Every structure is written in C-alpha cells, then in structure tokens.
Amino acid sequence: MAIDLTPLWDFDDPxxxxxRFRAALVTATGDDVDILQTQIARSYGIRRDFAKxxxxxxxxxxxxxxxxxxxxxxxWLELGRTYSSATHPAESQTxxxxxxxxxxxxxxxxxxRSGQLDYLAIDAxxxxxxxxxxxxxxxxxxxxxxxxxxxxxxxxAKAWEA
Length: 162
Known about the structure:
Blueprint: H1 14-25, H2 31-46, H3 50-64, H4 69-83, H5 95-114, H6 118-131, H7 135-151, H8 155-158
Helix pairs in contact: 1-2, 2-3, 2-4, 3-4, 4-5, 4-6, 5-6, 6-7
C-alpha cells in the first residue's frame, strides 16, 4: 500500500505541502520515497516553477524505471503537469510543450490502467483536456474519464464522478 497523500496536501498552500512531503520523506521507504518526490515536484508546478519541478523529476528517472506502478504513474503525471496544466500561462503552451505533456499523460494513463489505478487513469485523462483544448477534445477526454469512474469499484475513482 502506497502512502496516503491526501492529508499531506493543501493545494492552496503548496509551500506547506512541500514541507509535509519532506517531513514524510524522513521515514519513507521504497516507492513512497519516489511518490513523495513527485508531489514535491507538483508543489513547484502549482507555484509556477515548472523548471524546478522538471529538475526534481529528472533526478527520479533512474529509480522510476524500476519502481512500482503507482510511482511510475505519478512520475508521468507530474512530468506532464510541468509542460501543460491549469497553472501554465497561455504563451507557454507551444506545440512542443503540448506534445511533451501529451506523451507523459498518455504514459501515465497506460501505466495506471495496467495497474488498475482507476483514479490516476482518470487524472491523466483529465489532464489531457489541458493539452487538447478544442471543446470536442475536452468533451472526449471528460467522457472517457467519466466512463472509467462509473465502471470502477474504487471509491477514489468514484470521487471523480462529480
């Protein structure tokens, strides 16, 4: 069982969240170390320091190759978020940035599905709507995510239904 990130996150205070993740690293082992590092990278993305997030994720590359499915999925999700997310300014959304994000989100989706991590698969589809911003594409990603949420028996996936 991977670490529960919910009590560590305060999306309104990413600095505080980073401090909690770093405190949890002191006793973390195995994949939890990698998962916590991905969330530290995410905290920088929320602060719009995407380069710092990418730097942290780059440092994870060697161990992520042999990590479990959740750590790998979270790595790909957070890498994608460093290229395209709700916090990116419009001018940063170049074709190259979107393509890097798309590849990372697609890898996250495929990894999550192979590991039956429905909530992370839904998150990856949700993030693809930031890459493919045409309304028809956003609807397609939303419908695909909703279908997984409705078919899933996982409470964390069901939470995405709303």
